[in-house]
Write a structure and sequence with these properties.
Helices cover about 80% and strands about 0% of the residues. By secondary structure, it is mainly alpha-helical. The chain has 2 domains: about 1-80, Rna Polymerase Sigma Factor, Chain: A (Orthogonal Bundle); about 90-160, Orthogonal Bundle (Arc Repressor Mutant, subunit A). The longest helix is centred in the middle third of the chain and has 25 residues, at about 55-80.
């Protein structure tokens, strides 16, 4: 129940929170993503205090997000600026480029899947459910789950290579 509630809160409000916090961080998307994650963690820890009505839950989340962002700014001001200690050698840069290309290919591959294939992979690999649990949740035979997972993974492998 609480996992479903958290998933619903994240689905409904994460994008708006990210937009809000990206503006709050001066356009620094990675920092904004970290703040959204911290906001969602706080919501998870205090799920019993998050209002049930959608609009009130949204207000609650934005208040928490604002407080998380302010706390983050205060922490950064209280300590010396961070220094990048990484030595940018060619091997590191090549590895990073390859990773970015692979992630982009994976994202394109996922977008190319049918909605049912994406749903099956989400249930199995993101939610960590078994094939039997997935079949029960989606109301399809277990063989269908296994078949769709096989073809979805095959399609993703083809997209990445």
């Amino acid at each position: 129940m609480s996992t479903d509630r958290m998933t619903d809160l994240h689905t409904r409000h994460a994008a708006a929170l990210l937009t809000y916090l990206t503006g709050f961080t001066g356009g620094n998307r990675p920092s904004a993503e970290d703040l959204v994650q911290e906001t969602m963690l706080r919501a998870w820890r205090h799920l019993d205090t998050v209002p049930e009505e959608d609009e009130n839950a949204r207000r609650w989340l934005f208040t928490v997000a604002r407080n998380v962002a302010i706390d983050s700014l205060r922490r950064k001001r209280a300590r010396p600026p961070e220094v990048d200690l990484l030595d940018t050698d060619t091997a590191f840069v090549d590895c990073t480029v390859e990773t970015v290309v692979a992630v982009d290919a994976l994202r394109r591959g996922i977008r190319g899947l049918s909605s049912m294939h994406r749903r099956i992979l989400s249930e199995l690999y993101v939610q960590g459910r078994t094939a039997g649990e997935t079949a029960e949740r989606l109301g399809v035979p277990i063989g269908t789950v296994k078949s769709r997972a096989h073809y979805a993974m095959r399609s993703l492998r083809a997209a990445v290579t």
